[in-house]
Write a structure and sequence with these properties.
45% strand; disordered C terminus; 128 residues; single chain; mainly beta; 4-stranded antiparallel β-sheet
Length: 128
């Protein structure tokens, strides 16, 4: 019996971390990128202690987060809430938000921003 594999062309093998272009102390690893499929833009983010992703918003997307390691504070402009390993949170479309690491260890989260008004992703079926 043989396996037949037909999967998305948006697979990225061997992804590595790079410095975030706009935020010092923040590193990103893109797994699936919007360059090849606008419906997918998944990444792992690391924020070192005493750094943050500055306040910003996304006009066409909700951003989803899942904390893999450590803890961070999630801010909406009015208050900061602490989220930690195992917690999930989101920034709805248009919401100004920021994430800061005031802890002692590097925080890691999985982030999935994406357009809210997009068509379903065109992902090929995987057959095993």
């Amino acid at each position: 019996m043989s396996l037949v594999f037909t999967c998305s062309d948006n697979i990225k093998f061997g992804a590595s971390f790079s410095k975030h272009p706009d935020h010092e102390g923040v590193f990103v690893k893109h797994f699936f990128g919007k360059d090849s499929n606008d419906a997918l833009n998944n990444m792992e983010v690391r924020i070192v202690p005493d750094f943050q992703v500055s306040p910003h918003s996304h006009d066409n997307s909700t951003e989803y987060f899942y904390v893999v390691e450590g803890e961070v504070e999630f801010g909406d402009g009015a208050e900061w809430l602490t989220v930690q390993k195992g917690d999930a949170f989101k920034a709805p479309q248009g919401m100004v938000h920021a994430i800061r690491n005031s802890g002692r260890q590097t925080e890691e989260d999985l982030t999935r921003p994406g357009r809210d008004n997009r068509a379903p992703a065109n992902i090929k079926t995987c057959t095993y």
